Hints:
Strand 3 and strand 4 form a beta hairpin. A four-stranded mixed beta sheet has the order 2-1-3-4, with helices on one face. The protein is globular and about 45 Å long. 35% of the residues are buried. By secondary structure, it is an alpha+beta fold.
Amino acid sequence: MTITLHGVPGTRSTRAQWLLEELGVPYEHHKLDFMKGEHKGEAHLARHRHGLVPSMDLGTGPMIESAAMCLALADFHENKLLAPKPTSPARARYYEAIVYAISTLDECVIPLYFHKKVLPEAQRDAQVIAAKEPTWKVAADVLTDRLGDKPYLCGQDFTAADVVVGYDLVLALEIGLLKNHLKLADYTQRLMARPAFKRAFPM
């Protein structure tokens, strides 16, 4: 199976690349240039009708959505133990964490990241920040509770859930959202110390 990832470093495509690096499987990474509009070009639109990233081909045709890619990759490489056993209690937390990242964390952290760091000062909107910060504050408490005293979200073992959630937390760390959440900050630093993370995430 030849795996091909089409994405942009630093975006949500980093989730898939990070997990691929954790798995240690061969893959091709085709980097798109946002500034040149390559994500809206005919070739990429054939892979992702919305003109977004990432898109991945696992050998069976284009696949979209970074969380779905991580779930599939962990299952396809079961021997790498990046997902809890299907019948274990940790499996429920695993699904919860991944869906929570996509449905809740992405929706508050990414807008905050853009309006606090990425966009030019003139384009940053204080109303967006004010609207998203309350959700982040609750989310930080939820994640702190889920993490508890464990090294990783699902227990003693690192899983794909740590990759999917970890992406958001790295962005949160960069814009100072973890200053009052020391347990999450320590957890994020632990994730960032992993060799696979360093290979995948542009810092």
